[in-house]
Structure formats: structure tokens, C-alpha cells
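Researcher: Batch entry, complex prediction.
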Amino acid sequence: MLRVSLREIRAHGVRFALSVLAVILGVAFVAGTFILRAMLSDTFDSIVESSLQGDAYLRSVATTSDDGLPDGPPDPGAGFGGARDGIDITLADEVAAVDGVARALPDVQGPIVIVGADGTAVVNGQAPSLALALHTDDPAVDLVAGEVPVGPNEIGLESGALDSSGLALGDTTTVVLGGEVREVTVVAEGAYASPTSGATLAFLDADVAAELFAPDGLVNSIAVYGEDAVSQSDLVDAITETVLADHPDANLEARTGDDVRAEASEAINEIIGFIGTFLLVFASIALFVGAFIITNTFAMSVRQRQREYALLRALGASPAQVFAVVLTQAFAVGLVGSAIGLLSGVALVDLIRWILSRFGMNLTGEAPVTAFTAVLCLGIGTAVSLVAAAVPARRAALTAPVEAMRDDVTVTEKSLRWRALVGALLLLIGVAATYVSVAVSTDEDPYWGLEPGPWLGIGAGAVLVGMLALSPVIARATLGVLAAPFVAAIKPLGRLARGNVMRNPRRTASTAGALMIGMALVAACTVLAASARESTTAIVETEYRADFVVLSATNAVPAEAVTAIADLDDVARADALSTAPVELSGPGLDPTATTVIGAPPTAFGTTLEIETLEGDLATLADGEAALHTSAALEYGWQIGDEITLRTDVTELTLTVGAITNSQALNADVTIGEDQLAELLGPAPANVVMVGVDGVDGVPLTELGDQLDAIIEPYVVVTALTADELVNQIADRVNQALVIIYALLALSVVIAVLGIVNTLALSVIERTREIGLIRAVGLGRLQLSVTIVIESVLTAIFGTVVGVVVGVALAAAVRSVFADQGLSVLAIPWDQLVAIVALSAVVGVLAAVWPAIRASRLPVLEAIAQE
Amino acid sequence: MGRHAAPVSTSPEPADDPIASARALTKVYGAGATAVHALRGVDVDLGRGRLTAIMGPSGSGKSTLMHCMAGLDTPTSGTVEVDGQVISSMSQRQLTNLRRTRIGFVFQAYNLVPTLTAAENITLPLDIARTPVDRERFDTVISTLGLGDRLTHRPAELSGGQQQRVACARALVAKPSIVFADEPTGNLDSKAAGEVLGFLRRSVDDLGQSVVMVTHDPRSASYAHRVIFLADGAIVGELHDPAEADILEALAALGEAREQDAS
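Model: C-alpha cells for the complex:
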């Protein structure tokens, strides 16, 4: 029996080729994701290893747990493992005096902008630029060349940063440090034991760094290096007995280096996990779409071999044995596909690594294929293949043995009634669940006890699956309409093609179904992106009323620049929005790390025009706070509630005076700039934006020129008009959309392969029929055109249904997230029409190979073929 | 029924120790006004170690009778017994097992698995049943059929007659209690047909096999020990060790009777 199964694959291997390809693509995606995740994890682990080389660390006890953090990657400002207070930098000297301690180095680091040899800032994508204190004989850094920087006008650069800056030792360049522009000389090249994953690193004199980044004398932690032969735990014990005992009120803790490194790795792996999960979602979509190809291939192969299976049954094979014959083929397809897919995944990661390295981000080691990854990928590919082939296999197994005796194999099409019923039910459930999610999210009283998210997920899933189940039912009618222009325009081929696609609605629907899923997602993303763009630009246009908005690529406008702008004679207002990390608490909320925005209260109504949902932003002048509506909803706070903000320096309790839904004030809490200064003490505020209004009568271009003159030395700072800001935001949305399109593209490609597959197989299946119509006079070209029309109809059918579903779901998603910035629903009709038009082109491309095949069939042999 | 017997008939006498028998067998396809009565209460015994031919015009129910007796189709009412076992009430699982062990089939044509060689096709029923091949039996069957030099060929490389001989070998190799052949010579030229029929007869005479064959070709039927005539779902006559001429005569009489009946 195994022989029957394998021989069939050998004899008709080509028929399974596209199924194998579908598995390869899906599994390559999955394998690539796992390998990339492992590689990123390895890379970051080694970064942790080399940047945290201390044998022990002294720091304060975490004041918040990271459980309180909002979803998504942890806020880097809060640090890993929850927010911690700073500790006194002078503790380093006390620690250094402890027995067994060789050195105790406070961790001092902060942002820096380095101007490279070409006059532009040395930046590497989204990776940060950091300046760190470099101590003499620093154990963490290997001094490759030069001397440790001394004084404010010397810096060192990490080898990678030195390369990408184009600078050499001895060169002078400009840096922006702590809001000041400084001329410095590069005096050192330092190296870490592992790659820095793109971060641009510079080294400073330790005292200069402390002055800059720890002006209040507080640092995050102190790294302790033990003398030889002192174990990490002995070191921790020694520090606990001495330093910690001397400062019982300082809330200090000492931890071994291994513990701290493990903690950091864990936190980083969590973020990498998010990326992996995100990619896996797209990989699953690709595999799901690939399953359609497999189902179709096996359905058609079973149909053609009905007689053979009947023969096996007549010869005494049990249904289970026939089932096994078909599943064995599926197993082979799955196994071969996933094995090649696994190798392709490795190649894919190598390609990604090569691309990343071109952008200066080096990943460690070889692409690691663990046994787990290999087994998982082979398992997934094989399982998908087996599941996809199960229904056709069941059909083969249930072939009546008497079929073997009949001259004509009559393939009885089962009624679509059950499909229609189940599909309609699922669709109904989906629509209902979606409706619940929209209703819950727009309801004034959020305490229905229902979260919109899960309902939206269930709703979207049920609608998609319901439409898949329903699509054969609606195929006949929909295809009839779609085919009408072809029938009218291309006689008689349009009619022939329509007959072919409508004859087996199940097959047409499942071929189109694969495309439907991909296109539904593409359409949904397109609509959501357009809505996001419209919503954001609408808000930006209303909120940002300043003539110019000054922003920095590093999200920190230097303090010097802010002052200089405010001092310009032609500037009437220069309103700086600053941010600071704080701990937020209030009714029902334990201290939680978050970010607060400080704004001059007079900015509202002048450079910023912000509508409040409740209350009044003018109350900020009286020392009250404004909440963002998402925070108000999440924590259940209202106007008049008292909230507490705490920093290392002090603690403020404020009354909530306004609730906004602002894009500009996108932090949980906004307070007056005076209150922020109070919270920060001597530390400088981090200015994220300056709204600049000119004095009446000064031409905008002139003001712009003056601003440009001031910000030019800071390299990464720009002054934008409202229009330019809108464009910049739109660009950012478009970039995100491009990435998602690229990830969805694979699903669409697999879906197109599905069309090729179905057409090619149906040409084989219809060989005799094609011979007949060719014999009665249909030309080769006419035959090809017929097949092209079939293909186009199938592609358009899938796309149209997908786009309708996608737009409907996107509209629901938009309503649910209306509070979180998606205030406007924008349906980009031109883009949707372009998607449908593109699908017609795709249909033509998919038909090329099957059409050529069909037209080459020799007429006589085609008729003679049984 | 009210149907008069064809003039050539002798009453269908029960054979001693039948290999298969049917009692009051009816088969109705469809229901209501469109119901087709393929079998209308057939009683028949098929002799052990005999070659029996079932003849009749198209739509007479001869194929349905064979399908029901072979357990390929389930009768509407009545009982079927094969080699002492009542199969008309068997479950699908039992029927599958029965086909494996007791019954061999020879079909009209195109019923070899195209991807397997001749030898593999022949041993397919044994492979399905996971029974080891009895080499002696295999060799006997192969040499009787003269297939020795064709064993490694695929069906596509064999002539129609050779294909059908492979099919015969496949039916016989598992030593079934009974072999059913459905128009075994339907697609063959007369020379090839003669070879196949000669072999079927030899398998009965030399190997003691019981064979039932459905045919509408009088020459094929003349190889049989006994010919049963069917018309409109009922047995209307039979002949023993007939010559081709006898069969033609009987068929002619049957045709006349039908014409009279129709008029």
C-alpha cells in the first residue's frame, strides 16, 4: 500500500510541486523567525555579557514591579525590572574600600550626538547614541588605541562608531552633550568583547560624565569588580555587611553580576519575544494560505484517482488503508517541503544578517539551528500538510468499491447546504462579536465588564472563517456578475470560462479563498493606515498652531538651542514640551513607571490648540494635572481625583483638572512646566518639542532662516512647519505600512501559486474535454484566452470578497480604537481599486504557465486519453 | 411477476453445494415515481468449481446481480450467501474483510494501478491484506497465464489482452473462494478475448476455482459450464454446457418474447 502511495508521487510529482513550494515558503518563514530570534537573543546576551562585566552590583531596591508597566516593550526610561531610585555616586568610594573589592565604578551614561567626518550626525537607524564614562584600566572596555579621555574636550569612540563616523584618532569634531555643542578631539578607540548591535558609543572622562549625566550626584548602579579568587557571592556578602549596614535607610541592595546579567537577558528576551510573535503571526497566515493549495491539490488528485481508490477498495482495502495512501503522500509533501523550508529559512536569516551588517548592525555567530527549531519546523510543515489533505483523504477513503465497475466515474458533488449553514452561522457570530466589541468600546460606561479586544479578535476570526465557508455558496452568483463583462465582450470564450469557474464552486472558492485571506488583510491594513494617517494629520493640523515646531531626531532638543530660540527678537513665543520619567500612583493604582509631559500653561490656545474631553487645560496654571483619556479609562480616574507623581527628588500630589485626547500630549499625564521643574530638581528637563510663534509681521521664511541658523550646529534638530510635520508623520505611517505589506506579500504570493496550481491541475483533469473543443475548432490562442479569463475571474473573486471583508473589519477596528488616535475612518478608494486591478494582473500572470500547457496538448492524444 | 419463461429455459435447479446463492434478492434504485427496479426477487445458486456466465440485455440487472453477490453493493431486500456466510447483512468492515479473503475480481478494463508493475499489481490484494505471497501459487498462476516475461512492465506497456491476464492473475493469486468477472473481454479483440476466457475456464477445470462472469457476448458465454439469462431484473432461463449457437438461439427467443411482451 505504501508502494501505491509513493509510486503515485513519483509518477505525478509535478502535480505536488506547488504544494511542496507552498510548504517550503511557509516553513522558511517560521524557521527564519525562530533562527532570527535565537540569533538576536544570542547577540544581545553577549552584549549584556560584555557591557555588564561586574562581579557584583550595588543599586537601590526596585520601587515598582514591572507588572505595572503598560503592554508593549518596557519603557527604556524605567530601566529593566521596574523603576529604581538613583543611588549616591559617592557610595562607590565606600564600596571600593570593602575587603575583596578591586574596583567600584559608578554607571554613568547619557545621550550624545556625534558629528561625523561628513558633517552629519553619526546615527544608526533607531539605535541609540550613548556616551559612557571611561575609567583608567576600565575592566569592561578594551582600549585599542590612544589614551583615556581627560577633561571636557576629549572623547573616545567605540571601534564601530569610529568606523561609521569616518573620523580618526586626533581629529576634532563637534558633539552635542547635555544640551551644549562642544568641540572635542578624538583621543581613544575602545572595544567591547561583543558587537554593539548598531548603538553608537562614545567614551568620556569619568568626572566629566558624572557632571553631565549625574548632576544630582545620583547614578543607577555601581559596578563592583572583586579581587582575584573572591567569589561573586562573597563579594555581595562583604558589601551587604559593610556598605548596606552603614546605610540602612538608603534602600540599597547588592546583587551578584550573574544575577544582574540574567535579569537583563530576560528583559531583552522578552522584547525579542514580541518581535518573534509578531513575525510568527505572518508566518502562520502564510502557512494557512499554503494549506489551501495542499487541500486543492489533493482534492483534485483524489478526484482523478477515484477509480483507482475504488479498485483498491474492491480488492479488499479498508477505508483506513485508502486514507493512509493519501495521507502518506501528504506526509511526503509536508516532510520534503519543510526540510527544504528549514534550509531556506537558514538562507533567509543569512540574507537578513548580511543586510543588517550593511547597516552596521552585526549579529553574532552562525545561524543557530537548534534541534528544537528543526523538529518544530518539520513538525509544523508536516502537520499543516496532513491536516490540509485530511478532507480529500477522507473522500478517497469513502469511495464506494462499486465505482471501480462503472464506466463513468460519477463524482457526486455534495450539497452545499451544510457549508452555507455553518458559514452563515459563523458569519453571524463574527458580526455579533464585532458589534459587541464596537459597542463596548464606544459605550460611555466602560464597566460592562467586557474588554473590546478579545471580542474583536473572535469577531474578526469568525467573520474570516465564516466567509471562507460561505464562499462556494456565494461563488456562483458573484462569479456570474463578475463574468458578465467577459461574456459580453469576448464571445464565445467568456462563456466557456464562466462555465469552467462556476462548474465546481468549491474548488474555485477554495482557490480564491487563499487570496481572499491575504487580500482581506492587505485591505484592512490599507484602510487602517489611511485612517491613522487622516486621524493623525487631522489632529496635528488642529493641535499644532505654532508657526514652526522644533524637533530632534534623538527626541531631545538641546537646552542651549531652546534658550537661543527664545532669545530671538522675532520670536514671540517658544513653548517647550518636556518629558520626564516618573512614578505615577493614585486611587486604585500602585506606583507605576510612566512618562509625564511638562508644558507651559500659556501654550494652550497659542502654540497648541488642544480640545479637552472634560475640564480645562487652564487649570495646569493652578498646579493641576491633565490626563490622557486612555490613562483615565485604564485607571478609572475622573476630574477632581488626586494623583501622585514621584521622582528621586520629590513627590507631588495633583488634582486632575482636564482629560484630553491629544496627539501632542500623548503621555499619561501632563503638568505645568513649573511642576515638572520641581519634580526634576537640578536635573535638566528633556525637551521633546518647541512650538515657535513669530512676532506679527515677520515673514515665515525669515523666521525659518533664523531658526535654521540656530539649530544647524545641533545636526539632529529640525524646524518644521505644520505641513512639513504632517508629511513627516504620514511618512512614518507609510513606512510601517510598507513593512506590513512586505510581510503580507508572502501570503499573497502563495495564494497566487494556488491559482497557478488549481489551473494547471484542472487543465490536466480536463485534458479530454480540452481535446474535444480543440477538435471542434477552438484555436490554441482562444484556449489560452479562456484559461486566462478563468484565472482573472478567480483572482478578482477572491480579491473582491477579501477587500469587502477587510474594509468591514478595518472599520470595526477603527471604531474600537477611536479613543487611541483613530478618530477618523478613511477608506482610500483609489488604493482599493488599485488592489483589485492588481489582482486582475496577477490573474493573468498566474494563467501563463497553465495556458501554455493546455495549448500544447495534442488534440488526438487528448481525446484518446482516458 | 407474471413474466413467462423463455422457451429455452429449464427451471433453475439448485446446484449441489453452491459456492454462492441468492434468495428473493431485490434491488431498487431511487424511490417513488422514479424508482428503478434493477432486481425483482432473484433466486439463484452458483455452483462450486464451475464457470457460470450471466447474460442479458442492457438494463437486465446482470451487473447489479453480480455487484450484490460480490458484496460491492447492498441489496434492498433478500439474502446473499457466499461460501457459507450471509453477506447481505454484513457491515462495511466485514465486507471489506470478505473482499480481501474470499473474493477475486476481474473488471472490464483499465483496472490495474498504472503506477505499479504487473507483478506488483498481481500481489496487490495480498499486500493490502498484509498476507505473505504464496510463491508456488504465484508461479502456477503466472505460468498458466504466460505472463512470466511481462512481470516488470507497467500496465501502459502491456497490450489489452496482457493487461486483462494480469487482472485475472490478480484475482486468482489470493486463492479466493469465488472470482467475479465483469465483462472481462469487453475491450478485447477476439484473439485476446479467447486467451482470457480459455484461462478462466482452465482455472476452473485445473485449479478448481469457482468463477462467475457477466457478459453480453455469446461467444464468451460459450466457455461457461452454465449460462443464466436475465431480463428486467429476473432470471428468465438457463443453459448447461451450451454451444455458441444454442446461446444465440436462446437470446433470439428471449428477444422475441420481449417484443411480444412489449406489443
